[in-house]
Amino acid sequence: MPSLRLCDALAAHARDRPGAVALVLGEQVTTYRRLADLADALADRLDRLAADRGRPLCVPAHKTPGTIALLVAAFRAGYAVLAPSPELGPAARAELTAQARCSAVLTVDDDGVLHRDTVVQDDAAARGFDVPDPAVAPLLLTTSGSTGTPKIVPVEAAAFDRFADWATGHFGLDAGDTLLSYAPLNFDLSLLDVWTGLRLGAAVVLVGQAAATDARRLHQAVAEHEVTFVQGVPLLYRLLTQDDVRYPHVRTVICTGDATPRPLLARLGAAFPRARFHNVFGCTETNDSFLYGIDPATAGERIPIGRPLPGVRALLVDDAARILDGPGTGELYVSTPFQTSGYLQRERNAGVFVPAPDGGPEVFYRTGDVVTRDADGLHWLDGRTDFQVKVRGVRTNLQEVENVLVTHPDVAEAAVVALPDPEAGYRLHAQVTRRPGTTLSSLPLRTHSAAHLPRHAIPSSVQVSDAPLPRTATGKPDRNLIKALHQKGHQA
Amino acid sequence: MSNLPQEIHAYVVGEFLDGEDPADLTPEFDLIESGIVDSLGLVRMVSHLAGAYAIPIDDIPLKPEHFRSIGAIAAFVETATRAAA
């Protein structure tokens, strides 16, 4: 519950419209009254735990009414909450809880019973990390973390309220709406499809992990509950449009996380006959920054990210550190009314959260995205300034994947390249040279990767050989040649 | 259905391994954790199994655990086809 205003709104919904549906998960329907009761019961339990309010609680972001009620209870009681992915490995989670100085890890089971794991305090791990202030930033999200330890991003209550106000106004949302929550609860997308929905008193249909790739259950969730608002990555829309189904109740469709290919857009137009379509661009650090209204009937091969949202300042900075006034290509710097004040780890902020390049009063976030502004003022995303690509909507650093591969004792060298993929956006291919005399094959290397990387960062294909990697004239691995050879092998 | 595990093995190697050495692909090897079958791959596999083994997937609750390894897939197909028969 990212703000007190949200807490007050929830209390009002429970009082004024107790029977209205707040959450749906599968067959389980939770009204606003029930959600308030769950939160009250958990607040009592929290009270008895008497945890230190100066330290955050860690609540793994399981997508259940119990977890949402626990977050509500914790915020109301004045705690900051770190809400990491429930899929994060125990080692990575322990690192995060130590960094944020969490007092305990709390989970709620299906019977509403609170479970508490104590956390080993590790002052050395927390050195250089700010102490979260629950009055300012009650919710701590994390970046995806392609190395295994994500960065902690405090979400300020005031920033959340400004964001919820904008989204409510722009998409014309009210208590009569039913929002589909497809993204994991620890993603910033939940600030809109879960938390803004609850602030409004709308219904939120939660898609759990098991249903997320099940086209039949997704279709049911949207059709049976007469969902009016859908936000998701291309995979969601691929699954929803699989069988030429129509969703006449949907008024708003938001494409986000990745570029939506044109053939899919055409299907979207038919599947959602009464909807308006938007492409929304943003990241955990700044929340949404750009918006573009899509017309599926006239959309071209590429969809622009569009124009900055109201209150957002966007600057393009070229290689010579000049700010581009008109059309041109450069790195995108943004300042949004919704952005974090910085990563919890202070030294991470240097060079990333920077003074306004044009001397203005705002703090800008250096996105690392290469963006082109055309003559009409529309912005287009070209790529990254670093080794980052999006795999199934999640930002992934190729160098960090390489770093993990070469820690395997049998690996001599490794190069990871990103190949464009119509389904996933990009998929990763790893070319690996094993040490002489070893018999390493790709499967044990995948198991090794799985222990150190989140799933999206594990290469889709892994080729192991005894031959050294091809090199450029300057002696670096020739990634372009590796890419070309692999793609050629595919067509043959 | 004595050949079922071999059939599934051959399908996984042909469809997902893309020339990688399958020597270590045991019946227990975790296909999902290791990134061999991703969420899109899961969709493809379900549709293949439904067609190849006449499984009425609309009537069966599907869980990612059913497709975690070759052994699990074979067990799922066996149970599902028996239920449908």
Automatic annotation (TrEMBL), chain A:
InterPro entries hit by this protein: AMP-bd_C, AMP-bd_C_sf, AMP-binding_CS, AMP-dep_synth/lig_dom, ANL_N_sf
Query: Can you say what this protein is called?
Result: AMP-binding protein
Which key words are in the record?
Answer: Phosphopantetheine, Phosphoprotein
Q: Which PROSITE patterns match?
A: AMP_BINDING
Q: Which SUPFAM superfamilies match?
A: Acetyl-CoA synthetase-like
Annotated ranges, domain AMP-binding enzyme C-terminal: 400-476
Q: Superkingdom, according to UniProt?
A: Bacteria
Organism source for this protein?
Actinacidiphila acidipaludis
Show where the AMP-dependent synthetase/ligase domain sits: 11-344
UniProtKB/TrEMBL annotation, chain B:
**Which SUPFAM superfamilies does this UniProt record tie to the protein?**
ACP-like
Q: Where is the Carrier domain?
A: 1-81
Q: Which Gene3D superfamilies match?
A: ACP-like (1.10.1200.10)
Q: What is this protein called?
A: Acyl carrier protein
Name its species.
Actinacidiphila acidipaludis
- Lineage from the top down? Bacteria, Bacillati, Actinomycetota, Actinomycetes, Kitasatosporales
